[in-house]
Amino acid sequence: MGPTTEPVTGTTDETTATTADTDTTTGGPAALCERLGGEVGVGELVADAQARGISRAFHGHTDYVSRISVSPDGARFVTASDDKTARLWDIASGEARVLVGHDDEIWNAQHTWDGDEIATVSKDRTLRLWDARTGAPRATIAVPSPTRQLVFRPDGAILGAHTIGGEAWILRPGASAVELLTPPEERPSRSYLSLDGRRLIVQPELGDVYVRDLDGAAKKHLPRTRGATGKWFLDRHGDVALQLSNDATVHWDLATMTRRPLDGISHSRRPAFSAAGDRLALAVGADIHVYATRTGELVRRFVGHEGPVEMVSFSADDRRLVSGSVDRTVRLWNLASGRSEVYAGFEGVVTEAELLADGRSILAVSTAGEVRLFEPRRAGRIVTDHAAPATGLAVSVDDRVASIDDRGRLRIVALDGRVIAEHAVPRAAAVHLAASPDGRSFAGVPRAWVTGSDGRHPARAAPPATLLLGRFDATAPLAVALPAAALELLWLADGSAVVVALVDGSVRRIDRSGAGLELDRFPAPATSIALAPGGDWLAAGSDDGRVRLTELATGRHRDLAPHEERVTALAFAGGTWLASGCADHTVRLWRVQDGSFRAFDEGGHGVEQLAFSADGRALILLSGGETQLRRLSVETGEHLAPLTGPLGKLHGFTLAGDGRRLLTHGADGAVRVIDLADGEGRTLAGHPLAITGAGFAAGGRMIVTLGAEGSVRAWPDDLPETMPELRAWLAAATPERIAGQ
Questions:
Q1: 547 has which bridge partners?
Q2: pLDDT at residue 572 in the model
């Protein structure tokens, strides 16, 4: 029977594990659709599945699954079980070949070095070899005692250790019987091989523990280890030994024969070593400790599981760590940030988990015989990558994307990744791009803000800025020299010109030819500007708290009562309301007609962005350093339910053109898509650095994001909203996996 397709139960967090350990999707997609008909919103369900991936359950084993091994080409994997079978699975189709022949529990199953064969070892004291593609049996060979560890060398040798009898053995290429690597007279109680198969650590009944070089006869004895308790392990090349006992975890540097007790007592069935060999990971209760391999120094501690950790393993690129626990969850840890993603749904304890080549998909097995593949689809499709810090993003009406990096490369691409043009422009940091109202042009300018602990400040000493005016085609953009550094930019309603707010206090109109006209001037930097929806009034705020309205047709000015500190954000709602945000974390709601206002103290590190909902009934605001967006009722001034962003603090937000949805820009590299009708949302996580731009494309059915690392990603936003659409979505996502339901 092939795998079923099931939405994952899980969360993403930093320190707290999910409490949901029940698989709510048993019975496959068809049963899931029926059961959830009146219980959960379809959009919410699919958003969760799309954000966290699809869990595929591979059915067949009936007892404890102890090991997984993925083929070198990544197309198949093999599992070993106490049900006396191993199974060879095809990842794409889910079909399995059952490897039958052992008479007792299978303790290990691994692909050989060249991937041509599968080796299995069992409690029945045999090693069996199978064809890795067909599953056909090739050989059965007796081993001294039930074996848990298998190691394969490039020369074709198969080695075994960590046996019930304490022996270690080798099956040389072409041999029909194994040879002992441990003399019987030593009566060993423990043995373990280095992962390269070149060294062996042995604990004999009499005498000290020793490490033997298998390419020679040399032995190194570990002093004062006679009668030592616990288990012994070697690192990848046999340069470091670990002793794990109930009383201590001890690190041995075999070059100097020095020992060092490690912080924490580990119960790991075996340690995990990084591919580079410089890190080792151990389970310490419900935590994971990561140490420097050569010194034993504790370099990282991961907390999150709610029960003892059973296994840990590094990704191939050493950037992530996967762990399985008694709490029936799998966690994928980012070694740099310490954040983890949680995957649940198991009935049994997770015994093994392995990352696939993409570094995100996870195979995991449990004591209940479960085999699951978690396939997160969260990284988004990369449209283009600047490979340099980037901050500017604009999306055209015909689904082209303009982006710019701090090396002065302006790139125009289609959503399919096709490069339309790349232009060299003046180098600048923190360039902001804005699409024109008709979506056919864009403008860009570096914004001279400096962020401190008390909020944003104008960089008064910043050099004069260069304004870019361009089109979403191969035409080179026009570069316009401005008299001072810029802080803000917007387009006029008819798209004929842009307005810029400058550090010298001026507010200037620049038309498409580059000609400029000063609209207003403050004695302090002009820090914020906003245009009324009809395009007739312009609001501007300054560093000294002034707020002024300018009628664009006549040039007539109206001063409003000043704030006490810097004006940092402005927004209009129709021709009735103007909102202004201040560095002193206050917000004012002004009646444009008479200049009266209501003031609200919103806390935080100063208001950084404001916008009104499409109906003008709610004001959305972002305060510096916060992880959520606040909302105020325009009519009553009451606080509405906040809009929650990703886990990290927010840098900004983008409203959809229809006003129905909103994108938050996370400092943690995540974007959250929020439905403003009900406040529900889903997280798009994939950028390694902060989000610097986000927008909607393809008529709102595609989301485009820019990360500070320089990659532009595209994410489909086509979630079904009814049960029939849900069934169709599941079928389209994994048709071959649902056919057997």
A1: 541, 560
A2: 96
Q: If you count them, how many residues does the chain have?
A: 741
Number of neighbours of residue 333 by Cβ within 10 angstroms: 24
Cβ atoms of 518 and 501 closer than 8 Å? no
Please choose, from the candidates 283, 286, 274, 208, the residue with its C-alpha nearest in 3D space to the C-alpha of residue 240.
274
More confident: 349 or 17 = 349
Torsion (CA) 19, 22, 24, 26 in degrees, nearest 10: 160
- Where are the alpha helices (H) located in 36-154, listed in sequence order? 42-52
Q: What is the pLDDT of residues 188-211, one digit of tens each?
A: 999 999 999 999 999 999 899 999
**Is 2.130.10.10 the CATH number for 265-376?**
yes
The 3-class secondary structure across 356-399, one letter per residue, is: CCCCCCEEEEECCCCEEEEECCCCCEEEEECCCCEEEEEECCCC
Tell me which H or E stretch contains 283.
strand 279-284
Please state the domain extents for the chain. Answer: 265-376
3-state secondary structure 500-541: EEECCCEEEEEECCCCEEEEEECCCCEEEEEECCCCCEEEEE
Q: What are phi and psi of 729, to 5 degrees?
A: -65, -45
Cα separation, 34 vs 402, in Å, equals: 44
Task: Count CB atoms within 10 A of the CB of residue 393.
Answer: 27
Residue 259 is encoded by which pair of tokens?
A: 């020992």
Predicted model pTM:
0.60
Give whole-number Cα distances, 583 to 336, 454, 496, 544, 566, in Å.
33, 8, 32, 10, 5
At residue 77, the 3 state secondary structure works out as strand
Q: What is the DSSP letter of 686?
A: -
∠ Cα 339 341 345 (to 5°): 155
Contact 696, 658 (CB under 8 A): no
Give the separation between CA 552 and CA 539, rounded to whole angstroms: 10
Tell me the per-residue pLDDT of 273-327, one tens digit each, with 9 for 90 and over.
998 999 999 999 999 999 999 999 999 999 999 999 999 999 888 889 999 999 9
Tokens 């104008």 appear where?
A: 458
User: Would you tell me how many other CB atoms lie within 10 Å of the CB of residue 525?
Assistant: 23
Q: Of all helices (H) and strands (E), which one includes residue 66?
A: strand 65-70
Structure tokens at 507: 């507010």
Strand partners, 643: 629
DSSP string, 10-42: --EESS---S--S-TTTTHHHHHHHHTTTTS-H
Q: How far apart are CA 404 and CA 432, in angstroms?
A: 9
Is the model's pLDDT at 516 over the cut of 60?
Answer: yes
CB atoms within 10 A of CB 453: 7
Nearest to 188 by CA among 200, 206, 171: 206
Measured N-to-C along each axis, helices 723-733 and 42-52 cross at an angle, to the nearest 10 degrees, of 20
458, 525 Cβ separation under 8 angstroms:
yes
Task: Report the first-to-last Cα separation within the chain, whole angstroms.
Answer: 10
- For residue 574 the two structure tokens come to 């129709």
User: What does the pLDDT read at residue 346?
Assistant: 87
Q: What pairs with residue 471 in β-bridges? A: 441
Phi (first) and psi of residue 109, to 5 degrees: -145, 125
Confirm if 8 and 1 have CB atoms less than 8 A apart. Answer: no
Q: CB–CB of 624/609 below 8 Å? A: no
Give the integer Cα–Cα distance in Å for 721 and 40.
11
Closest CA to 645 of 623, 670, 619: 670
Instruction: Tell the burial category of 385 from Cβ atoms under 10 Å away from its Cβ (0-12, 13-18, 19+).
Output: middle
Give the number of other CB atoms < 10 A from CB of residue 43.
Answer: 18
What span, in angstroms and rounded, lies between the C-alpha atoms of 443 and 420? 17
What is the four-CA torsion angle of 203, 209, 214, 217, rounded to 10 degrees?
A: -120
CA distance 468 to 479: 5
